[in-house]
Design goal:
Elements lengths: L6 E5 L8 E12 L6 E6 L14 E4 L8 E4 L4 E3 L2 E9 L2 E13 L2 E6 L1
Antiparallel strand pairs: 1-2, 1-4, 2-3, 5-9, 6-7, 7-8, 8-9
């Protein structure tokens, strides 16, 4: 779901409140055998050498297209006949089953857009 050239925000525990901005330079094609994750390389300016090798950081990838999406609890999804659905509750007498497409799942939340 991420691509080379996308913008990222990098934060660290060492510098709370400071956001370092960079870009994804390379997406590796192989899973790391130990961690079972695919790694990416991020390039970012570090003129004052605040960032050090082996520092832990949180990286947030910005959506290049800046699309808006819905965020629902993952357990709210209904799967039937190879399609995901959610119930849209407008009132007690107005409940609709709506097909959706999943963009991504993060923890117990799912990002989606209507199908």
């Amino acid at each position: 779901m991420i691509h080379q050239g996308e913008n990222v925000n990098v934060t660290t525990l060492a510098y709370p409140g400071k956001i370092f901005k960079g870009k994804i330079d390379k997406v590796m094609n192989v899973l790391d055998p130990t961690s079972k994750v695919m790694k990416v390389r991020v390039i970012l300016p570090n003129p004052d050498y605040a960032l050090k090798p082996e520092m832990y950081a949180s990286i947030t990838v910005s959506d290049k297209e800046n699309k808006q999406c819905l965020n629902v609890p993952s357990q709210a999804l209904i799967f039937d006949h190879s399609q995901y659905y959610v119930l849209v509750f407008n009132s007690k007498s107005d409940v609709k089953i709506t097909p959706v497409q999943i963009i991504n799942t993060v923890g117990d939340r799912t990002l989606l857009h209507r199908g």
